[in-house]
Amino acid sequence: MNSDRGAGTLLGLGLLLWLVAMVHSYARTSLWVLDLAVVSLMWLCAVAGLVCLVVGAVRLGRRSRGRTAAAAALIAVVLLITTVVGAWWPLSPRTWFATHRALYRQALSTDPGHDYYGAPLPAHLRFLSAGGRVSGDRDSARFFPQWIGVPDDAGGYWHSPAGSPAGYDMYGLRCRDPIALGDDWWMCGLADR
């Protein structure tokens, strides 16, 4: 019984740490200089939370088949949510985009407005860009920033029906050497991984 309590505590701690990291990934708020510490802390929370979740679930699952199935289902749901909402785009911007392409296509219906930093995306799509916004440039192009520098510059994904977004404004930084992702999509200012 004591090991159940320890496994339950580990599972609860894992869920809490993971949830904190996912809320941050969803909100994608920028704290400027503090981002260096905050983003590192959120990655630590995500990894530690996932490890605690898996270890706690395995320990609880050893008791019965029902618990094993519940633990496996919990881990599957957590991994699915992490894949969709987790801010893992720096690890592989191409794979992030490929995984979320349908959601970006859906986000194209958002009018970027006339504000320099664009307009807010619908609530269910805010995790797709830094600050949860989409902005526009010429030729009905849409920009989904993944990072915004201090005090300016950015990098992210472009939808540009008129062709390459080379030279388009990314909050002070001009898009140079954009990488085609297919179907009028490009990435610029991101590592090609």
Structural notes for this entry:
With about 190 residues, the protein is of the alpha+beta class. It folds into two domains: about 1-85; about 95-190, no CATH class. It is about 45% helix and about 15% strand. The protein contains four helices and eight strands. The chain has helices at about 1-25, 35-60, 65-85, 95-105; strands at about 120, 135, 140-150, 155-160, 170, 175, 180, 185-190. The strands form two sheets. Strands 1-2-3-4-8-7 form a six-stranded antiparallel β-sheet, covered by helices on one side. The radius of gyration is 19 Å and the shape is elongated. The mean pLDDT is about 90.
Notable traits:
193 residues, alpha+beta, 6-stranded antiparallel beta sheet, two-stranded antiparallel ribbon, 4 helices, 8 strands, 46% helix
Profile the largest sheet.
6 strands, antiparallel
Number of beta strands: 8
Q: Kindly report the spatial arrangement of strands forming the biggest sheet.
A: 1-2-3-4-8-7
Order of helices and strands: HHHHEEEEEEEE
Residue fraction in strands: 15-25%
Helix percent band: 40-55%
**Low-confidence runs:** none
Count up the domains: 2
Query: What's the pLDDT, averaged over the residues?
Result: 91
User: Measured on Cα atoms, how large is the radius of gyration?
Assistant: 19 Å
Quickly count the helices.
4
Shape: elongated
User: How far is the N terminus from the C terminus?
Assistant: 47 Å
Protein structure class: alpha+beta
